[in-house]
């Protein structure tokens, strides 16, 4: 596939998967890859990816799990990039792209139609965190179009009863996230704290919440790298490298 000006092509280091990215706009981080690898879905499942960006999570879930993924992306350029990445990896039959706002997307995509929903949302509230001049980067980093509560509400609307919502976020906003999930009928069932390496505190977490689930939550920890910089065996298994 021909690269457009300003684009680069990255190797995802898994069975030949590749991803077109725009470094001048926004590129995926390891948080998105971790999240995608923690999602449990099967070939018969329908998954919604809220705030899909260029499609990293959609591509990994469709390729590794065989699920049908609907990528929801507000920014037209990112939605188009997601379509091209699906085509690049031969996943155009598994990934469809809805270009529009997360808020209210269930009305268009089908309330209660999805087995799982996943999101790597903006980490910062509007007006907080590091300010970037580029609008495309700001939209990816700050809650400009949908708040944390908005995303939880839409995930609940999209999910079947018993379906699971997976989200990665900053530890500093964990209490807010768990409260928002519970308020929208999504019972937090598992939280995985992500530690960059031994001796470092967790900076992010992944939560799995079940629509209509019973109370009770399990807490896990995942250390990504050893002190020598090599990936831990646990992380390598998760990434499919071991």
Describe the fold and architecture:
The chain is of the alpha/beta class. The chain contains eight helices and ten strands. Helix 1 runs parallel beside helix 2 and helix 6 (148-158) packs parallel to helix 7 (174-183). The longest helix is centred in the middle third of the chain and has 13 residues, at 76-88.
Give me a quick take on this structure:
With 242 residues, this protein is α/β, with parallel strands linked by helices.
Break the fold down into its secondary structure elements and pairings.
Elements: E1 8-11, E2 18-21, H1 30-38, E3 46-50, H2 56-65, E4 68-73, H3 76-88, E5 95-99, H4 105-109, E6 114-119, H5 135-141, H6 148-158, E7 159-170, H7 174-183, E8 186-195, E9 204-211, E10 218-223, H8 233-239
Parallel strand pairs: 3-4, 3-6, 4-5, 6-7, 8-10
Antiparallel strand pairs: 1-2, 7-9, 8-9
Helix pairs in contact: 1-2, 6-7
Q: What fold name stands as the CATH topology of the domain at 8-170?
A: Rossmann fold
Oligomeric state of this protein: single chain
Described by strand count, sense and barrel closure, the largest sheet is: 8 strands, mixed
Cα radius of gyration in angstroms? 17 Å
- How does the overall form come out from the CA principal axes? globular
Q: Pairing-aware structural class of the strands and helices? A: alpha/beta
Number of strands: 10
**Biggest sheet: strands side by side, in what order?**
5-4-3-6-7-9-8-10
Rounded mean pLDDT score: 92
Separation of termini? Answer: 30 Å
Q: What proportion strand? A: 25-35%
Number of helices: 8
> Can you tell me the CATH class of the domain at 8-170?
Alpha Beta
User: What is the H/E order?
Assistant: EEHEHEHEHEHHEHEEEH
CATH homologous superfamily descriptor of the domain at 8-170: Vaccinia Virus protein VP39
């Amino acid at each position: 596939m021909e690269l457009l000006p300003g684009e680069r092509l990255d190797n995802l280091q898994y069975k030949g998967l590749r991803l077109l990215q725009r470094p001048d706009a926004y590129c995926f981080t390891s948080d998105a890859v971790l999240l995608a690898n923690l999602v449990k879905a099967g070939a018969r499942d329908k998954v919604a990816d809220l705030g899909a960006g260029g499609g990293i999570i959609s591509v990994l879930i469709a390729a590794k799990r065989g699920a049908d993924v609907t990528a929801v992306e507000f920014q037209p350029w990112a939605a188009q990039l997601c379509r091209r990445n699906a085509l690049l990896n031969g996943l155009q039959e598994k990934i469809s792209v809805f270009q529009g706002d997360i808020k209210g997307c269930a009305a268009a995509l089908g309330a209660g139609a999805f087995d799982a929903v996943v999101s790597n949302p903006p980490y910062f509230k509007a007006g907080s965190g590091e300010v970037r001049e580029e609008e495309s980067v700001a939209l990816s980093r700050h809650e400009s179009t949908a708040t944390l509560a908005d995303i939880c509400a839409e995930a609940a609307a999209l999910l079947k009863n018993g379906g699971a919502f997976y989200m990665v976020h900053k530890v500093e906003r964990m209490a807010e996230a768990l409260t928002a999930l519970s308020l929208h009928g999504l019972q937090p069932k598992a939280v995985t704290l992500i530690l960059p390496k031994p001796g470092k505190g967790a900076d992010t977490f992944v939560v799995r919440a079940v629509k209509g689930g019973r109370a009770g939550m399990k807490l896990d920890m995942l250390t990504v790298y050893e002190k020598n910089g090599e990936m831990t065996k646990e992380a390598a298994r998760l990434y499919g490298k071991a």
